[in-house]
Amino acid sequence: MGELVLGRKLGWRGAAWGAFFGTLPDLDVIALPFLDAAAGIRWHRGLSHSILIMIMASLILARPVARCHRERGVKAVEAGWLIFWAWSTHVLIDCFTTYGTQIFEPFSDARVAMNVMFIVDPLFTLPLLIGLWMALRLPRDSWRRRRVMGISVCVSSLYVMVGFAMQSWAENEISRHMKNDLLDAELVQVAPSSFNTILWRGLIETKEGYYLTYWSPFDGEQGAAYDYIEKKCEIMNSYEGTAELDALKWFSRRHWVARKGKDGRSVFIDMRFTEIRDPRSGILQPIFQWHLERAESGSVSVPMERPTGLDYAGAGVLIWERIWGGQERWEAVKEF
Q1: Counting beta carbons within 10 angstroms of the beta carbon of residue 143, is it exposed (0 to 12), middle (13 to 18) or buried (19 or more)?
Q2: Which one-letter DSSP state was computed for residue 318?
Q3: 300's torsion region: left (phi>0), alpha (psi -120 to 50) or beta?
Q4: Is the pTM of this model over 0.70?
Q5: pLDDT at 221
Q6: Closest by CA position to 69, among listed 108, 141, 12
């Protein structure tokens, strides 16, 4: 965005400003060490990602940025547009993912999650990086420079549009299978699996648990397969009413299950996020999980802990096989 808006006047400095203001919203993580556990869960992708803040920043910071480049003839309105587009496109991309972004703060803590892209997707980022690298190698006043950058933005935008189309297709197919296979169940989410928009994950809720199912356009006529995950919410009964558990429920949009860890701590698992199918252990490994423990003082600690010792390379091979319709080794990995 910095290159497109002010690259002609500022050269590489336009891209540098775009990188700065495009990164600024995520610097909210600097505050996390100073917040308690519950506030920390609610803070990230909160106020710094709101529409109000991006508009205020564009208005307040436009003149200072323009003054930095007065000799280049940069006007405040141009600097304001650079700030707005760099900031707002960051937030928009976040909204495309499953995580959830509080764009309506401070008026509402509702979180927008369109579920059309994985949280990290190199296929979206790569065209932008290639386009920027090519553009910065061209003369500042070259018409080809703006054209190259525009094409790369269009390619990444087209990838997002394909994601929306694939999500709609996946939702239709998963719903069709559900009508035949599951009764009294609700499809609550359809989201892409790791690093692609071809293999899609359906999250289906019942009163006692969740079914996980995956769909790829290369599945052919083979029937859907399901993993059943029991909720076991009673494990968290001793933490009911605490700010920490309330924050986790809010973050997960109330789609969660609980387990008892090997160390005796209670484990809260957000079911909205894809899990890793670890061929080494043969067990699904949830990535977004928090381990709750109450101290003698009564305070509750809720560290987020990732599973360790996983066979990521083997898990990647399973995703590749499953994309092309291979279910045998995929379904051999059992639920947690």
Answers
A1: exposed
A2: H
A3: beta
A4: yes
A5: 85
A6: 12
254 backbone φψ class: left, alpha, beta (φ>0; ψ -120 to 50): left
Q: Over the chain, what is the mean pLDDT?
A: 95
Q: What is the pLDDT of residues 92-127, one digit of tens each?
A: 999 999 999 999 999 999 999 999 999 999 999 999
- The CA angle 260-266-267, to the nearest 5 degrees, is 85
Mean of pLDDT values over 57-61: 97
pLDDT at position 285 is 95
Cβ neighbourhood burial of 254 (10 Å; 0-12, 13-18, 19+): exposed
- Widest CA span in the chain: 69
**CA gap 1, 18 in Å, rounded:** 6
All residues at 6 or more sequence positions from 198 whose CB lies less than 8 Å from its CB, including other chains: 166, 192, 216, 217, 218, 323
Rounded Cα distance, 226 and 335, in Å: 10
Count of residues for the chain?
336
pLDDT at 37: 84
Structure tokens that stand for 30 in this block: 């600097």
Residue type, 69: H
Taking CB atoms within 8 Å and a gap of at least 24, the contacts of 248-254 are: 248/41, 248/290, 248/302, 250/41, 250/42, 250/109, 251/41, 251/42, 251/100, 253/100, 253/111
Over range 55-71, report the average pLDDT.
97
* Tokens linked to 224: 């859907």
